[in-house]
Amino acid sequence: MALPTDPRSINNILATTLDAQLSEITDNFFNTNALFQKLFLQYKAGFNTIKYRGGAEIRSAIQYAGLPAYMYEKGTTFDTSQTEFLTSLQFQWRRAAALLNLDHLDVRKNMGDESQIIDYVAAVAQNGVNSVYNMIGYRIYGTQPNATTGVTEANPAPTIDPITGAASIDGLYNGIATTGSYGGITLGGNFGTPGFSVTSNIVNAGGAPFSLDIAQEAYGLATFAQDQPDLIVTTQKQFNAFWQRAQPQDRNAPGPLRDVGFRTVKFNQAEVIVDSHCLPGDMYFLDTKYIEVWIMDGCDFVRRSGEPLGFPVPTQDAFVDQLIAYLDLIIPGPRYQSKLTNLAE
Predict the structure, then answer these.
(1) Is 144 a residue whose pLDDT tops 90?
(2) Taking CA atoms, which of 36, 99, 265, 318 is between 20 and 30 Å from 251?
(3) What is the CA radius of gyration of the chain?
(4) In the predicted model, what is the mean pLDDT of residues 171-191?
(5) In this predicted structure, which of 5-14, 156-165, 210-219, 329-338 has the lowest mean pLDDT?
(6) How many angstroms separate the Cα of 45 from the Cα of each of 39, 40, 48, 126, 218?
(7) Does the pTM exceed 0.85?
């Protein structure tokens, strides 16, 4: 990897003058991370975030059937058997980390008002925060960046971290699905069964270009009375198609994400936004009321060492640390979500 070098001779000017440099860093790496930003805003507000100090596993109770109810006449014999209608989705805690490694001499060189333009240790820490958020953004969708181009592509094994082989978080890739299993329950089956109740909604566009009609179909599948999608995430190309077809008032409608600086479009009751971690051709219609972030208290995006520089390396003049989170992202209400896939990209 070639980095810029300084071939200049130290002459009168260079010996007496510092280079002009802004005391800030421009981000030319991290992607748009709209869904995690939305969920993290809810996390900071204490909404749709479950914090536990421990617990062997994560369980979320669901009801999948109703009690028998019918009209009856004189002499009708009631069925007195008990009906099972509740169960729980079961998930495991997942662990995420970003690595913060520092050479001690580099840290010391960066100290002092006369030398420091940008706080190097703070820059490493902030990059770690952005890195773990960015990684989680990919894992939510079961995607990864192409190693050469950085373009978002499918992770061949979305339940597995492509770097370590560790189990990945439970995200949208299997929470919005019609086959496989979710939370220990096999998807599918007949009406009134657990599998039927956690089977989500998929609309295959078959390679067709985006249209408001097909968007409304996917939106309608995730609408139940007053519950309807409040967030639509997609690629830049599909967002552009939304924007071109939207009314002027919908291009500038207020919303939680627009209020924190994102560019959004309104569709029905949902904010439409770009998320660069989304796979090309996909569009998610999400009711974030039924998407939960589970975080273990005390391990919620914190540094393991708790020290300014981290753990000293016994055999090196260096410090290491990890920014960690014990968490999972689950969907207790898959039927309130839908996915539009295979759009022309």
Answers:
(1) yes
(2) 36
(3) 25
(4) 93
(5) 5-14
(6) 10, 8, 9, 21, 29
(7) yes
Render pLDDT for 58-83 as a digit per residue (tens, 0 to 9): 998 999 999 999 999 999 999 999 99
Sign of CA dihedral 155, 159, 164, 169: positive
Query: How many residues comprise the chain?
Result: 345
User: Nearest to residue 118, comparing CAs of 187, 22, 26?
Assistant: 22
* Phi, psi for residue 170 in degrees, rounded to 5: -85, 105
Domains, the chain, ordered by start: 31-61+86-341 (3.90.1690)
Contacts of 328 (CB under 8 A, 6+ apart): 58, 91, 92, 93, 94, 169, 170, 293, 294
* β-strands 201-204, 338-341 pairing: parallel
Residue pair 273/39 in contact by the 8 Å Cβ criterion: no
CB 327 within 8 A of CB 301: no
Q: Are 187 and 199 in contact (CB under 8 A)?
A: yes
Model pLDDT, residue 344: 94
Q: Does residue 29 have a pLDDT over 60?
A: no
Question: Is 195 exposed, middle or buried, given 0-12, 13-18 or 19+ CB atoms closer than 10 A?
Answer: middle
Banded pLDDT at 40 (limits 50, 70, 90): low
Two tokens, residue 55? 């617990």
Contacting residues for 32 by C-beta, under 8 A, at least 6 apart: 274, 275, 276, 277
Alpha helices, H only, the chain: 12-16, 34-44, 104-109, 120-141, 172-175, 194-197, 212-221, 236-245, 248-251, 256-259
